[in-house]
Amino acid sequence: MRRTLIYRHPPIIAAHRSIVGRKEGDGPLGEWFDVLLKDDLLGQKSWELAESEMVRRCARDALDAAGLSAGAVDALLGGDLNNQIIATSFAAKKLGAPFIGLYGACATFVEGLALAAAMIDAGHLDSALISASSHFCTAERQFRFPLELGAQRPPQASWTATACGCALLRNRGEGIRVTQGTLGRVIDLNISDANHMGAAMAPAVFDALTGHLENTRQRADDFDLIVTGDLGWIGRDLLLRLFKKAGIDMPEDRLVDCGASLYFREQDAHAGGSGCGCVASVSCGWIMKRMERGELRRVLLSGSGAMLSPTSSQQGQSIPGISYAVTLEG
Amino acid sequence: MRRTLIYRHPPIIAAHRSIVGRKEGDGPLGEWFDVLLKDDLLGQKSWELAESEMVRRCARDALDAAGLSAGAVDALLGGDLNNQIIATSFAAKKLGAPFIGLYGACATFVEGLALAAAMIDAGHLDSALISASSHFCTAERQFRFPLELGAQRPPQASWTATACGCALLRNRGEGIRVTQGTLGRVIDLNISDANHMGAAMAPAVFDALTGHLENTRQRADDFDLIVTGDLGWIGRDLLLRLFKKAGIDMPEDRLVDCGASLYFREQDAHAGGSGCGCVASVSCGWIMKRMERGELRRVLLSGSGAMLSPTSSQQGQSIPGISYAVTLEG
Fold first, then answer.
1. CA distance A105 to chain B (A)
2. B307 vs A73, B81, B86, CA distance in Å?
3. ipTM of this predicted structure
4. Domains of chain A by range and CATH?
5. Which of B100, B123, B317 sits opposite A111 (nearest CB)?
6. Residue of A48, A135, A188, A312 best to disrupt the B interface, most CBs of B under 10 A
7. Is pTM, for the whole model, over 0.90?
């Protein structure tokens, strides 16, 4: 089994854009995002169309930033949490680019980065847009309860971010390089509380990060920052415990979780942010911008997804997690 | 935009397996499938677990046929129609192989073939399993009505096949080669009848097939067979009309649709078979076996998906279609 891909001709992140909702804009990372929405409905008739419009705008902005037309990009790889990934596929329809639909739950963005980098490295694509989105209102009503119900949330529940991140990879130019990627395995330690995503995903993240480090013969010290997707505050603690238990050195101050960074504690987001758009927007905003400023040189970016559906949960199934990882070099 | 990928080191289909339900086994292609289920529930507690077990068995059988363990395969690429692709991700959990979750609706199998071939061609993977499944009972209750209701179906409705197909691609050995692949674009000609999948997908199939032929400078005559996924009887007629209107020669006797081939007319499948498992099982059964017997040398295989969700339909949105194509050479 070869899980880790080494890109011999590392693709460049030619452009990246992020769009977030009002709550995310009010959080500690607000200043790092490109677009702060005032209207989470984006003038659309439904939350689903709003999320799709967010994807279209974000992709459009990334293309504009690189001076590329949608007709010139070789592929859009992406997905979201909506059933049948309608937010992304409806955006792909408007963009007109060849579309590779992915489903990796909240790990979709990093899954897309790893795949697109492999395709560009091989010369199969010259350019690719990678996109992932989530919207609190589409996810809440699809996975949990009708919004109008105002259901109380347990403390371990995460808050689905209203956010989208798009990165444009190209085979040449200047910018952050994607140099290594590790594919995820589905791992399930029998967590069946559908509100406890951090616990369900932490073992998969541990598996992807240790796999990535081992296969590339690197240590945590080789990176300025190790970024996880949306474990939240509880899941991040569990991940640190897994490293400690395995006797692997993981400096706590260098492990940053996007979900645990997106909101202030007093914003009532409970365990932290989640959703495909969480890691996508935070990495396209905060992480990549800090890399471009020279504050970070080497970043190990992972995303994690909980591969559950309301049906599997209602049938009493536990929650399988998956995580992918890529090395970004400034 | 580069939609068509030419594999310089074409991967080999080292093994392929198909599993189908009772209705599919009773159809005209029954003898070509590897496993005919007597129990569509496969001894499981729910239809969703049954579909997942079908994926696991089919993948296991394909690995066994090639003498490979699940731990030795570099990746499983696949998906299904269930929300959050739970049938495939739960099977991936049991197999333990690195997992690349895809969502291309009923085009998922060919999407996976094109992607996996690119990854193997590039040397990023040595082997990959491609899987796609569907189950009448999971799809019917998720997309349409409770099974118990016995709702009447309009004549243009297709019948979701209970079926799974798995192909194992490797970078060396003897067998059918995957030599070219064309990525799909999301195309929507404003069909909003969620029962009329053939009409919604035909324009996307036309776009993928003509794109594939143009970009590789081939004509229909260069192939012994041109296979479409699940347009059904009506969708196949519409596709032929699109070719005629465009003045492109497409010999009617050489264009075979998996959905239109899977059932006898008297089996009450209305417009024909559909579902991710339709093109997957028919190509892994009928098509690839005929190629191995030497009856077919060059096949243009396409799959088509309708990227709708019950939510998008209920919100009055039309149905976007997508289609991918690959060249198989015996």
1. 7
2. 21, 10, 17
3. 0.97
4. 4-170 (3.40.47.40), 176-329 (3.40.47.40)
5. B100
6. A312
7. yes
